């Protein structure tokens, strides 16, 4: 595995691979890698000549009161996992090379960035869209792989790619879960034993809601109330940022279930914020 730390060198390396007829599959991450990340890496390895993974804990997507400083970091462990997966190139830049003095250009994906997580993390998706655009310009992928776990992120990135005529396929990969249903996340490392035992409540309540929809209930506020009750019944839950039934394209709140819907939640357990979602296709299910 080749290790590249300097954006300009990554750019030259990418050009070289493309010129040699080896299109690039790209997996952007913030490190502290788990099976969720590795599932994206494996998919990219299957579908591309060259796979590039990036590890960059992007400071601009964290709010001032958020966990940038404490975000889990495990470079040695990550290197070992990526070597085992036979990744071709790891791009691991530092923040001063990504954002040199005078940096002043940002990407705003309007209308999608202020919903769901964006309502609670005001400049988060501006930070995400900007860094993903930079990473795309540096790594020059033909395909880029994102997890459904961060569904809103994929909606925002797809919109950016479409609006700005970027010639990159965005591939959405399924959420990888622990045996008890908890979506794998680097932030799960923050949970103590009792919190970890309680955390599957998020997926359980999303699954209950999905069951109600499959049984024919279409009253979205009714389903939302049942979801909320089941989450709040868990004493370890310290808050619910949002939870409900949304249009997977516009991310608008739905009053009635139709076609394909997004069930999504952001829940706090102690001080840890967990997000999860399920897509339910009503037409397919009935
Ligand atoms: P992160 O390191 O959290 O920024 O995540 C990097 C990529 O891995 C994003 O596309 C995430 O959606 C994806 N990812 C994170 N957790 C999971 C998971 N449990 N299953 C599938 N993909 C995931």
Q: What class, by secondary structure content?
A: alpha/beta
Averaging pLDDT over every residue, what do you get? 97
Distance between the termini: 47 Å
How many separate helices? Answer: 11
Q: What small molecules accompany the polymer chains?
A: adenosine monophosphate
What amount of the residues lies in strands?
A: 15-25%
Tell how many strands the DSSP assignment holds.
9
Overall morphology: globular
Biggest sheet strand order reads: 1-4-3-2-5-6
Main sheet, how many strands, which sense, barrel?
6 strands, parallel
Topology as H/E string?
EHEHEHEHHHEHEHHHEEEH
Oligomer: single chain
The poorly predicted ranges are: none
Helical residue percent?
Answer: 25-40%
Could you tell me the radius of gyration in angstroms? 19 Å
Features:
286 residues, alpha/beta, six-stranded parallel β-sheet, three-stranded antiparallel β-sheet, globular, binds adenosine monophosphate
Protein architecture, described:
This protein is α/β, with parallel strands linked by helices and about 290 residues long. The protein contains 11 helices and 9 strands. The strands form 2 sheets. The protein has a 6-stranded parallel sheet, sandwiched between helices. Strands 7-8-9 form a 3-stranded antiparallel sheet. Helix 6 (about 125-140) packs across helix 7 and helix 9 (about 200-215) packs antiparallel against helix 10 (about 220-230). The structure holds adenosine monophosphate (AMP). Adenosine monophosphate binds near residues 36, 39, 146 and 185.
